[in-house]
């Protein structure tokens, strides 16, 4: 672990960065009280290794770097999108060790040895994943900015249902959940699509689910 | 090409490619994460520095002092730019408030500084170290208060942008006083946020005096022009690039601070800089749909003929801002000899109000179409029949001016039939499904058609491929695909042989994307360029271009045929043209029409509202691609559900800002809120609007939706809510007793 002084400064930096916009509403003069970090070099050089789409990566990262920014700014896999950087939209959804997460809400250095799958790892324009193909067929997107997150989420949702994980709308917790329209809509609700492609996304997922089994 | 007489038969009418439900040609890139948006151009700029904007912490006042010493010493910081060191800046033609504040502050979250550092984390941390002391001033933040003394406003949409402050036909007051059945109600709509999924972002790179900016913008030439004006540099020195746009809905019509601050930051840092607005800056630092206060009066005969109709709306904006034109549709939608519309505009110190998806009509119909529902109830008449009875085929203010096409009645009849409208119980609060109160509602959709000049360049390469270049943008609207379809149809090639390049100021100036004019205008521009290219091909191959047919890679004419590719054996052919518009919109009123039907259920105990079914029927000219057009409509219907049930920027009237300025506080519909949606397009080809005979649907789709939902909720509960959004607290106390 980093030395205690350093992690104290880091935490504070993260805290101020994350709440700055809420704070300035109540701070008419001067914003933020944090002091510049004294040991930025330490913060810059944290090493972390993980696997992305089957490829190993070893990165020197600022400890404050989110997994999302590590992917987008350091590995240049920009398929995962930043819609809010707050865990409010789902555009940054990636699959870590088989589970979908908001990659903006987790620091890259927390992912030593993890297996990460991004939209780029699901398929390519030449060789689409069935979920990607279903989104194209059903026009489950418009601007495309929420789309990688929707697709990663949808792929993970099918696995969650297969694994028998219940949701808020599962009527019976003792029998395996089914991929009903209501289940799917509930489970996908962390992925906002402001273009409003929901009705088509539902059809795309239903088709991909059918073709999968 | 000037379009000034009705279109005759042309190659588009074949509809071999145009009019087909072709999947998006950009789909494989978008669904695999390979489409590069504004912040993602690692291919062209390898070492950008990161800029993070500091926004004003007050709504109105001055910066007394700005202290950069701590920020400038912070690790990784390369430069900090404020109004003090930015040099003289202009203000873009389309901006109401300046994009870099200081010393005067015009609104909350107005940019006051950009901190540029080597990494995003460093820039973010250092931005929090910029010390700004403000001298706060009294601001005007209360719309209702400000409207009490607000003057009448001119209609900014009238041809001279200076219409009369009121429109009057006949004698409204007298006819209303004498009408046997009267409605007189007030409706309110709140400030709304576009909240597109990609916040504004720009990457700026200087090469000497020349600036290239990769950004996210709907209107390339507006943005380029306004950036040049703001920076005080020649427009020719700016290249403005926006190939993919993560949604806009009007919020990216204009240059915003991300682009200006990226450019200034890059200049100061001496290297490329990218800047994205943080999500919580979107509502207060960019634009929003202004709130309205609307009074509607309708007088009718006992059998439902409108005798008098008045629609008065008030809204607010920053000094020099425009009113929300919520009364527009009321001048054109229903018959009636005596009419009055007017708008008031209050000066507010809230962030800039501006166009959001169907500006004017969207909030206007939120009110008008509840009013019509209320009138139908007063008359004891079916709401669909009331609309049919008051249909007009001419401009009600100028009866000599017919609509180019108007099949509103067809939309209403088809919709009622498909939706099972006859099963609606006209007594509100009477239908139950377990604990749920169930109701049906409908509303009319209306949105004016606008045509904008639009240019394109088409190239027939020696490989037989057709390349289209235009600065048109695709903001999710399907521009890439419909432009490829247009070029394929015109040149008689497969769509796979068409390459479309968009969103670059190096290409001919297009209509851009906005006002639902993009599809029709930009494809008409491509049509014009293709006509020229066909002439060039015909000439090379020795055909008479007037009667040459382009089909399946062949050119046919007289009694001979040639391969298209033979025309480029000695070199490629390039043609450029633009569509310009004559006066057909003067002699014909050009509009789009639709009808929305909604079934809603309201929990009898909690008042929770769920939308169960939605149907839209649209009559909007030729539909260029039913797949992407349908998506535009379902997306707009979804946003309409948001407007009906949840979307509202909450105003802090003391400090002057929108409080709920992120996606947790500003609620938009999610998967669980939206049922399966049906869309039907009526067959139509409007030869008075363009050679494509198309109009647009992207904004039509939202018009009336919120009212249809509100009317369905009323039909379910019997409690009329006239104050959007219709949230459960507004009807909970009055719900029928649960038996
Ligand atoms: S960017 Fe991570 S949830 Fe929005
Ligand atoms: S496709 Fe644009 S936000 Fe979903």
Could you give a short description of this structure?
The complex is a heterodimer of chains A (213) and B (739). Chain A is an alpha+beta fold. Chain A has helices spanning 4-23, 40-44, 67-74, 119-122, 130-137, 147-162, 181-187, 198-212; strands at residues 46-52, 55-61, 93-96, 99-102, 115-117.
Q: Overview of this structure, please?
A:
The complex is a heterodimer of chains A (213) and B (739). Chain A is α+β, with helices and mostly antiparallel strands and 213 residues long. Chain A has 8 helices and 5 strands, in the order ααββαβββααααα. The longest helix of chain A has 20 residues. The N terminus of chain A is likely disordered. Chain B has a 7-stranded mixed beta sheet with strand order 4-6-2-13-10-11-12. A 5-stranded mixed beta sheet of chain B has the order 1-27-21-22-23, with helices on one face. A 5-stranded mixed beta sheet of chain B has the order 8-16-15-14-9, with helices on both faces. In chain B, helix 9 runs parallel beside helix 16 and helix 15 crosses helix 16. Chain B is globular. The chains are: A alpha+beta (213), B alpha+beta (739). Chains A and B meet through helix 1, helix 2, helix 3, helix 4 and helix 5 of A and helix 1, helix 3, strand 7 and helix 15 of B. The complex binds FE2/S2 (inorganic) cluster (2 copies).
């Amino acid at each position: 672990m980093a030395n205690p002084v350093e992690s104290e400064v880091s935490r504070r930096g993260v805290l101020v960065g994350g709440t700055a916009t809420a704070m300035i509403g109540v701070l008419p003069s001067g914003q933020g009280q944090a002091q510049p970090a004294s040991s930025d070099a330490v913060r810059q050089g944290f090493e972390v290794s993980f696997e992305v789409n089957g490829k190993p990566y070893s990165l020197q990262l600022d400890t404050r770097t989110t997994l999302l920014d590590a992917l987008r700014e350091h590995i240049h896999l920009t398929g995962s999108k930043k819609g809010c950087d707050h865990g409010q939209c789902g555009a940054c959804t990636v699959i870590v060790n088989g589970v979908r997460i908001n990659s903006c809400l987790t620091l890259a250095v927390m992912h030593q040895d993890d297996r990460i799958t991004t939209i780029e790892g699901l398929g390519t324009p030449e060789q689409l994943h069935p979920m990607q193909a279903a989104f194209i067929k059903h026009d489950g997107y418009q601007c495309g900015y929420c789309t990688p997150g929707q697709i990663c989420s949808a792929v993970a949702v099918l696995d969650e249902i297969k694994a028998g994980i219940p949701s808020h709308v599962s009527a019976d917790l003792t029998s395996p959940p089914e991929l009903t329209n209501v289940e799917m809509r509930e489970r996908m609700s962390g992925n906002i699509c402001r273009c409003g492609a929901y009705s088509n996304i539902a059809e795309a997922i239903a088709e991909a689910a059918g073709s999968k089994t | 090409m000037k379009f000034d007489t009705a279109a005759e038969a042309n190659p588009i009418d074949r509809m071999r490619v145009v009019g087909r439900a072709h999947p998006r040609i950009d789909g494989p890139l978008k669904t695999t994460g390979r489409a590069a948006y504004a912040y993602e151009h690692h291919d062209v700029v390898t070492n950008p520095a990161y800029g993070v904007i500091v926004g004003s912490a007050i709504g109105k006042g001055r910066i007394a002092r700005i202290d950069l010493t701590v920020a400038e010493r912070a690790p990784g910081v390369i430069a900090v730019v404020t109004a003090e060191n930015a040099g003289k800046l202009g203000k873009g033609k389309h901006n109401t408030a300046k994009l870099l504040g200081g010393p005067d502050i015009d609104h909350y979250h107005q940019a006051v500084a950009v901190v540029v550092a080597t990494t995003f984390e460093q820039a973010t941390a250092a931005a929090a170290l910029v010390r700004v002391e403000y001298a706060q001033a009294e601001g005007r933040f209360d719309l209702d208060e400000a409207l009490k003394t607000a003057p009448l406003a001119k209609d900014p949409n009238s041809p001279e942008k200076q219409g009369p402050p009121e429109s009057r036909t006949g004698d409204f007051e007298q006819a209303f006083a004498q009408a046997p059945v009267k409605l007189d109600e007030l409706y309110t709509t709140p400030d709304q946020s576009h909240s597109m999924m990609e916040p504004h972002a720009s990457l700026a790179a200087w090469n000497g005096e020349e600036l290239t900016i990769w950004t996210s913008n709907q209107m390339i030439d507006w943005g380029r022009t306004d950036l040049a004006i703001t920076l005080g540099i020649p427009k020719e020195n700016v290249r403005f690039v926006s190939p993919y746009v993560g949604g806009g809905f009007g919020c990216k019509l204009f240059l915003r601070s991300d682009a200006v601050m990226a450019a200034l930051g890059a200049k100061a840092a001496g290297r490329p800089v990218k800047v994205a607005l943080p999500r919580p800056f979107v509502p207060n630092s960019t634009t929003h749909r202004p709130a309205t206060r609307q009074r509607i009066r309708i007088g009718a005969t006992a059998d439902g003929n409108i005798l008098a109709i008045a629609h008065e709306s008030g809204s607010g904006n920053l000094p020099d801002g425009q009113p929300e034109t919520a009364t527009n549709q009321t001048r054109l939608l229903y018959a009636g000899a005596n009419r009055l519309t007017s708008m008031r505009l209050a000066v507010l110190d809230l962030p800039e109000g501006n166009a959001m998806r169907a500006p004017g009509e969207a909030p206007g119909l939120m009110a008008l179409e509840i009013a019509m529902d209320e009138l139908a109830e007063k008359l004891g008449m079916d709401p669909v029949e009331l609309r049919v009875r008051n249909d007009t085929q001419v401009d009600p203010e100028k009866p000599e001016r017919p609509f180019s096409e108007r099949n509103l009645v067809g939309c209403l009849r088809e919709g009622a039939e498909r939706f099972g409208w006859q099963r609606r119980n006209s007594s509100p609060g009477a239908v139950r499904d377990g604990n749920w109160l169930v109701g049906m509602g409908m509303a009319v959709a209306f949105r004016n058609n606008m045509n904008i000049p639009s240019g394109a360049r088409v190239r027939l390469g020696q490989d037989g491929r057709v390349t289209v270049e235009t600065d048109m943008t695709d903001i999710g609207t399907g521009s890439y695909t419909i432009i490829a379809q247009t070029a394929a149809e015109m040149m008689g090639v497969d769509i796979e042989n068409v390459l479309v390049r968009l969103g670059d100021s190096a290409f001919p100036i297009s209509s851009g994307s906005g006002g639902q004019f993009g599809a029709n205008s930009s494809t008409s521009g491509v049509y014009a360029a293709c006509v020229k290219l066909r002439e060039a091909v015909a000439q090379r191959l020795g055909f008479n271009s007037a009667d040459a047919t382009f089909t399946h890679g062949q050119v046919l004419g007289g009694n001979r045929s040639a391969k298209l590719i033979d025309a480029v054996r000695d070199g490629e052919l390039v043609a450029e043209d633009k569509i310009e518009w004559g006066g057909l919109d003067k002699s014909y009123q050009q509009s789009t029409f639709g009808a929305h039907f909604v079934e809603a259920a309201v929990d009898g105990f909690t008042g929770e509202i769920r939308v169960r079914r939605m149907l839209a029927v649209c009559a909007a000219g030729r539909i260029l691609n039913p797949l992407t057009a349908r998506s535009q409509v379902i997306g707009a219907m979804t946003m309409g559900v948001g407007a009906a049930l949840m979307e509202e920027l909450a105003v802090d009237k003391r400090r002057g800002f929108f409080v709920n300025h992120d996606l947790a506080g500003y609620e938009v519909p999610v998967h669980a809120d939206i049922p399966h949606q049906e869309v039907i397009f009526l067959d139509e080809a409007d030869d008075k609007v363009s050679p494509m005979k198309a109009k647009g649907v992207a904004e039509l789709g939202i018009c009336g939706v919120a009212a249809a939902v509100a009317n369905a909720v009323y039909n379910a509960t019997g409690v009329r809510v006239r104050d959007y959004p219709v949230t459960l607290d507004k009807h909970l106390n009055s719900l029928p007793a649960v038996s």
